[in-house]
Amino acid sequence: MAEERRGRGGSGSKARGNGRSGEKGGPRRGMFRRRKVCKFCADKVDYIDYKDAKMLLPFVPERAKILPRRISGVCAMHQRKLQTAIMRARQLALLPYSTD
Amino acid sequence: MSQARQYELVYILSPDATEQEITDLHAQIESIIARYQGELVRTENWGRRKLAFRIGKHREGTYVLEVFKGSGELTKELDRRLKVIDNVIRHLCVRVDEELRLAERTRARREAETQRRIARGLPVGGRSRRADDEGGDDDQADRAEV
Question: With a cut of 0.90, is the ipTM above it?
Answer without folding.
Answer: no
